[in-house]
Amino acid sequence: MTIEAKLQALTEALARVEKRAQAAEDYIAISNLQRTYGYYVDKFQWEQVADLFARDAVIEINARGKFKGHERIREYMRHFGPAQRGVLMNHIQLQPVIHIDEDGETAHGRWRAMMQVGELGGVARLGEAIYENRYIKEDGVWKIASLRAYQTFYVPYEGGWGKEALPLVTHFDDLEPDEYSEPYPVFPDVFIPPYHYTNPVSGRE
Fold it and tell me: Where do the SnoaL-like domain residues begin and end (predicted)?
C-alpha cells in the first residue's frame, strides 16, 4: 500500500470515529433534554418546558389534540396552572431507545413515563405513558421537534390497576387544539403505540 493510500485509509477511519463520537455526544444531549423535560413538568415550570421545543414543534399528549408551534405549546402548558402546595405531578422519564438519523441533525426516541399525580387530601393517581418523540438540532442545540405521549393507563392510587382503570384523557373544554387526536384503547385494553424502529436483531416491524 502506498503512503497516499495509507493516508486515505487513515483519513476515512478518523472520519468514522469522529462520526461515532458525535453520535455518542448527541445521544447524551437528547437523553438530558428529555429528562430535563420531566423535571420541569414535575414542578409546573411551563416556560422552561416550552423552551425545550423547536420553533415549529408539535405536542400531542394523550388525546387532547395537536398544538403546533412555540406559542401554542406555551399556551397548552400554561393551561395546567402554577405549582400549588400539596399538589404532586411527577413525570419520571425512563427506558430510552434513541436513534440518531444519518444526517446527524434529527433523531427519534421512545421513552416510558411513570406518573404520580394528585393532591394532598384529595385525588391521587398513578399513570404511565409511552413517548414517541422526534428531535432536531436547531441553531446547534438539540430540541424537541415533536412530543407524542400515549396514555397507557391511569388508575386511582387506592386499589391501583387491579381494581379500576380510568378512560383515555381527552381534550380540554376551554382550549381548542390545532388538530384533534385520534382516540385509541387504554388499559385494560391492549394497545401498542407504534415504534419508530424495527426489531434490532430480526429487522421485523
Answer: 23-148
